[in-house]
């Protein structure tokens, strides 16, 4: 599903290049569920940005379902992302002026007849335990309910790869646990590959594979913003 080799990414801040990622090799098989943990600033979100083609590496190769993401133009990456990736974020990113149903509908293929779209949305809302919330605005939903809507929006097109960046980061313990199970259950029932970045160890423990990013990344220490503090950056030689 995903093959990474010789991947590196730095950010240039105040005229200095700060190495963030240096990943010699990493593979994720189709259907795998992987939780990535690691300290703040260790490059976890940056890695998801590279995998999704939102950001580009300085060097290296990323193949997504056999497609060379690293060789694509921005619009090719955008197309691949909308076809193949569902993205779940910590703060849901629902559009406040749209209902739950409309927030899901905007992610759906416009060529699908409207009636079919409505039926599919109802089925999904039922599946995530929100059968009577279709017309509610995000502000009328709890944070856990908003995350459920955001998960439906990410999964409704059945993407082969689901990426989630701190999906439980702003939720209380119990709701976080429900959201963890929901993401795992939904992606398992569709044989989707799921890569989650999380500080939530309870969530990470639920995953068949849990990886500290430092196991992949040869950049051992990281600069925090404001960048450029003396002595906080170092690239290991392996
Ligand atoms: N666009 C950018 N420009 C400059 N520096 C950046 C940019 N994006 C990230 N960084 C820096 O890269 C490093 C890694 O950031 P990243 O968000 O990937 O870390 P993280 O492991 O996800 O952290 P956290 O767990 O706190 O979310 C940080 O030092 C951050 O300040």
From TrEMBL:
InterPro entries listed in its UniProt record: AAA+_ATPase, ABC_transporter-like_ATP-bd, ABC_transpr_LolD-like, MacB-like_ATP-bd, P-loop_NTPase
Source domain of life: Bacteria
CDD domains per the UniProt record, alphabetical: ABC_MJ0796_LolCDE_FtsE
Matching Gene3D superfamilies: P-loop containing nucleotide triphosphate hydrolases
Any matching Pfam family: ABC_tran
Leader peptide range in chain numbering: none
Gene Ontology annotations for the cellular component aspect, listed alphabetically: plasma membrane
Domain ABC transporter: 2-235
Gene Ontology terms for molecular function: ATP binding; ATP hydrolysis activity; transmembrane transporter activity
Keywords attached to this entry: ATP-binding, Lipoprotein, Nucleotide-binding, Transport
UniProt name for this protein: Lipoprotein releasing system ATP-binding protein lolD
Species per Swiss-Prot/TrEMBL record: Paenibacillus sabinae T27
Lineage, highest ranks first: Bacteria, Bacillati, Bacillota, Bacilli, Bacillales
